[in-house]
Amino acid sequence: MRPDLARALAERAHAFVVSGAMDSERTNPCACGGPEVEHAGTAHRGGHPGTGCRRYRPDTAYQLAARAVDNADTHPLDDVDAYLTGLYPRPTPAPGGHGVGPSDYLGCRKAIQLREAPPPGMVRNDVDMFAARAGSGWHELTRLAREKQYPWREYEHEVAIPGLDRVGRLDEYDGVLARVKDLKFPGEHTWNDLADGPDPAHRGQGHIYGLGMRAQGRPVDTVEIEYMHRMEGEVERFPEPYDEGTAEEALDWLSGVNFALDVGAEMERDRGGPSSDVICERFCPVRDHCWNVAAAKAAGRSPESYTILGAEPEQRHAVWAAERALSFKRDRAEAKTEYTRAHSLLVGLHNGRYGDVLVTNKSRKMPEHEKWAKAVKAALDDGATAEQLQKIPLTYRWDHWVEVKPVRAADLDAEEAAARAAEAADAEVIDLQKAGAA
Ligand code: SF4
After folding, report:
1. Ligand 1 centroid to 74 CA: how many Å?
2. 111 touches ligand 1 (CB under 6 Å)
3. Which residue of 124, 268, 279 sits with most ligand 1 atoms within 8 Å of its CB, as the best mutation to test the pocket?
4. Can you tell me which atom of ligand 1 is nearest the CA of 286?
5. Low-confidence residues of the chain: pLDDT under 70
6. Residue 292, in any domain of the structure
7. Mutate to test the pocket of ligand 1, among 112, 267, 280 (most ligand atoms within 8 A of CB)
8. Ligand 1 pocket: which of 110, 281, 292 to mutate (most atoms within 8 A of CB)
């Protein structure tokens, strides 16, 4: 729309807002000024006898005013989500097929079952979407930035996967480097898990994309998972040669899920349950159905107890659960004692790397709120005035401890690559020297 027309439209819409027309019952007036309901016909699409209008045409300024008022305070992440869902709709499966895709690899099979074949009347839970939406936002921003700078790469590339009923969508394919890249934007918790290396589910997913691209006749030599800590910006990359065995192992797993869906089999719950597993508790939209949450609450039981042991647990099942809990309690006590013993050997060591372990002496200044609250209570009991209470100081203490962490797998990989490169360079020098001597 021409800028002058857009401005005129906004000014007319503003007039509707200040008139209070949006605060009372919406009349959806026609461009002729007559309310929608006064237009002729059962659907009120005909003319208006009072204005002489021949057919109803919604007043675009009124519509704009309604949209502006209704969307004045939307959540930024909801807006990002709506934009991205429109841009990248979930791929639909082939007729009669299932929507299982590469990103489902090693996911919870029960969640997949309830997503693909929900029982009638199943109510879905509201879930915490912040992490998923923040990750999607970073994905899109990265794509926009890279598309401008590296236009030869293919982004959000749809790729058919042999054996699956729907296409996958890979983040980046670089035909020059013959590299498939999948990006992940984990938060702190997942980032800490990556200390031991990439998530096997992400590796499998990447290799499936590699297999799909090769099936299209496109070269794939490398599959890389690129992680960026979404709050701190730190990056770790895990490139590896494409491996058909890894791709087929992952595809077999997904085909097994598709087969179970075909025959209507009940699938495993692959997570621990809402009392112990944050994925179930905060991020799974089928949690209440999966763990019979309402029935468990009514029976005064935990969802896990009610679901696994049954509504009326047999004695032998209760014995099994009690013995299992006791066994883990003993193991935990033993592990805690051994850890304390081992950890005490580190006190006084210099900060540094010991083998593949990082040892760091740490300190922090902590406010002593509890001590302060006790002093305030004692003073109150003694009849202190407000002025005297204000003078009670908040004291601080220093906490000291030794942190022990593994060297991150990404750093070990980088060291190994550097050692290999140095070895190759040495070998080249030796070859050149030999050639020179000859
Ligand atoms: S609640 Fe947990 S176990 Fe159940 S479907 Fe969801 S992720 Fe799987």
Report:
1. 30
2. yes
3. 279
4. 6
5. none
6. no
7. 280
8. 110
Shared domain for 252 and 155, answered yes or no, is yes
What pLDDT is recorded for position 119? 95
Two tokens at 168? 């996958």
In the block, residue with structure tokens 């000291």: 400
Classify residue 201: in a domain, yes or no.
yes
* Per-residue pLDDT at 77: 86
* Domain final residue pick, 198, 232, 263: 263
- Give the tens place of pLDDT for each residue, 55-89: 999 999 999 999 999 999 999 888 988 999 898 88
List the beta strands (DSSP E) in 45-159: 154-159
Distances (CA, A) of 414 to 151, 237, 246, 420: 28, 9, 22, 10
Q: Which domain holds residue 375?
A: 352-407
Could you tell me if 198 and 209 are in contact, meaning their C-beta atoms sit under 8 angstroms apart? no
User: So what's the pLDDT on residue 133?
Assistant: 86
- Model confidence pLDDT, tens digit, residues 135-161: 889 999 999 999 999 999 999 999 999
What pLDDT score does 1 carry? 76
| Contact assessment for residue 183 and residue 142, using Cβ atoms and an 8 Å cutoff | yes
- Does the Cβ of 108 fall within 6 Å of ligand 1? yes
